[in-house]
Amino acid sequence: MKKNIILFLLIAAAAAAFVLFADIQSVDEYYLSHIDDIKEGDPTVFLTIRCDTVLDNYDKLRQALRSPEYVPEDGVILARTEYVLRDGDTVFDILERAARHNRIQLEHHGTAAVYIKSINHLYEFDCGPLSGWIYKVNGGFPSGDCSSYVLSDKDEVEWVYTCDLGQDVGRGYTEEAAP
Amino acid sequence: MKAFACYHPAVLMLYFVAVLAIAMFCWHPVLLALSLAGSALFYFTLAPARVFLRESAFLALLAVAVTAANPLFSHGGATPLFFINGNAVTLEAIRYGLALSVMLAGVVLWFRAYGLVMNTDKFLYLFGRALPALSLVLSMAMRFIPLFRRQMKRVGDTQRAMGLYREESLPDRARFGMRVFSAMVTWALENAVETADSMKARGYGLAGRSHFSLFTFSGYDAVMLAAIAVLTGVFAAGAAAGGADFSYYPRTVQLSLSAASLAVYAAFGALCFLPAFIEIKEKIKWTYFKSKI
Of A55, A86, A148, B164, which residue is 20 to 30 A from A95 by alpha carbon distance? Predict the structure, then answer.
């Protein structure tokens, strides 16, 4: 009897924790985004998402992803778009806002240092063992994670899929290695 | 014909290796369903109904847990149902979890059947000469957990019979568990050394030591071996032609009905239901003959 009470309390506590900490949203709620309209004088940044390197390594791509739905024929998942920069926005904030606005699938890992696992169902390691998503700001490859890079006005952010640890998108080993 | 367990150990071993290799590494839902159905039916013919029901209840519980847990850790898939803390719970992840639990249940039941069909005697007959030390250790390890459990119950019963630890309070129960466990550790070490010593005293593993066994390779075994080889060969050929391919992410693909797929389903289905078929056939025959007495 006593054991049953303890078990019941444990289950109740787990259920309470789930209700308190789980924020459940419907699909439409999740994708309902608040993109600010660009007004004169607002600080803005540009965002591009591309996966051209996959097209050059199509034979290495996972079979199930060989469709223009996941890898567009021109390699452009999100064409260069201008977004309003809010105060303190990081590369990750802009990416997440844009992905929600355009209903692009996004999976990331971690909260303190965010790692992007997948954009548009294209996951890390889906095109060879050295593949994954990396980002560029104004043509260079910052060394930190995308949630600690705070953007400034007119920055040019580019997310690119690499099939060779960044070598094929112009990142040499001379630059700082990723953490 | 004879009951499945009476076939030559080498044939049985080959059968389990072939079935488990496919059941453990194929993600195709039809193959997983065949593996589960075949193993469940086979286990049902071998085990007492009570044991079978208990095992099924446990596996059903495990399946529910695995199916519910997978979407919480895997967020891929093109069909989100809802979002928890910004992470998608997708239809594909639920399907994958379901496939995973069917695979787990199938493999567990195959191993249960293996345990009932392949006893230590057969295992040592197969590997005792080639790998004496390893096969002794393996067979001791495999019988260790049931042995440990039996001995644990015995020690616990003795403690209780002596009037110790009858209380229902939690600290007392913990103390009881600790006491029994410490007795068990000593016993297990001693038992392992004793078994090894005893085997050594009998000359186990020495060159020139002869083995007595009643296993003979008969015509039935040859037929069975050929059947396993042919079915596995057809399966391998079909799988090489892409008949066993399936993918869950990002979108679950349609079930294929191509010639290669049908060949793979048929071959693996026949392989899975072979032992259950033999057991049931023998049971019917036995009942029939008994009814004529």
Answer: A55
